[in-house]
Amino acid sequence: MAARDSALEVLSDGQTAAPLLRVGHLHAVAASAGGENGGKTARTYFGHFEHQSSQRDYPQVCGDIRTGSVRGEDVPFVLGLPLVGGQPFFPHNYTRRDRMLSRLIIHYIGNFARTGDPNIVPTSDEGAEEDEESGEELDEDEWEDYGGGDGGQEGEIDDGNFIAPHWDTYDAINQCYLQIGIRPEQKGHYRGHKMSLWLNLIPQLHRPGGDDVSMRHHHFPEEGPAYYDGN
Questions:
Q1: How many domains does the chain have?
Q2: Residue 104 falls within a domain, yes or no?
Q3: How buried is residue 227: exposed, middle or buried, by Cβ count under 10 Å (0-12/13-18/19+)?
Q4: Which end of the chain has fewer CB atoms < 10 Å from its terminal CB, N or C?
Q5: Contact status, residue 58 vs residue 27, Cβ threshold 8 Å
Q6: pTM > 0.85
């Protein structure tokens, strides 16, 4: 089971995660170059959905607990289906936390669709400064008991109100992204070492050597137990 999961993780990284991260990186670089050349500055936002729905279609096998989500599990939350009991496409009994998370995602996406920024749209200069530092406080009735309730941290209850964390822009250096789950959290360098395998090491192995390197440098001996068995 562990070997299977490891193989699937490696293949998923190479076929899905790394290409998506590469696209985001190229978009961020192009947006930065456009702003430096006097063009309209575009912004790139990176998010990772890690919530495990209470009504997921991928049950644990033989008691083997796996964390994280499966590709496509975010779709019902983006569409707001937990808010209507999953009808008409996903008739499931979503929990209160599922509904609260769906509200949070719609909050971000709605703001992004209207303004190009998933965070709150300030109504004054004073509000802009406050919201940039602490995020948007949502109604107590909407966010009560969501996220644990320790208070004082992003993504947790603070004095009865849920504070939606500020979603920072993604750039080629800091590589900030928002981990979207029961406790939303701002992080950086998504799976850095594992993504580096596909985005840096393997592409470098495919590059040709310098002109001063002889082709014989890349040749293996025809026979040698250090390379393969047989004659």
A1: 1
A2: yes
A3: exposed
A4: C
A5: no
A6: no
